[in-house]
Amino acid sequence: MQLEMNLAKDAKNNKKRxxxxxxxxxxxxxxxxxxxxxxxxxxxxxxxxxxxxVLNNIFASVxxxxxxxxxxxxxxxQDGNQGGKVPPAVRDQV
Length: 94
Hints:
By secondary structure, this protein is mostly helical. The protein has three helices and no strands.
C-alpha cells in the first residue's frame, strides 16, 4: 500500500516508474489453473475441451431449469376482468 502511495505522489516526476508498475499489475492470467479442474473420475483435465466439459457439467448440475413459478408483480384482477372499468381505446395514427 505504501509503495502505491509513493508511486502516486511521484507519478508526475517519474512517469516511467509509475507506468512500469501499472503495466506489471495489469497482466492477468487468463487460463484456468490445471490443478483446479478434475473430471468426475478425479483425473486432472488439461485440454480446453476437457475444461469446458467439466465446467459445463458443474453448471448443468446447479442450473436444472426447474424454476418455481413466481408471483405476478401486477396487483388486481389478472383474468381480463376490469372490475367494471372500460379498457382504454386503441386507435391507429395516420
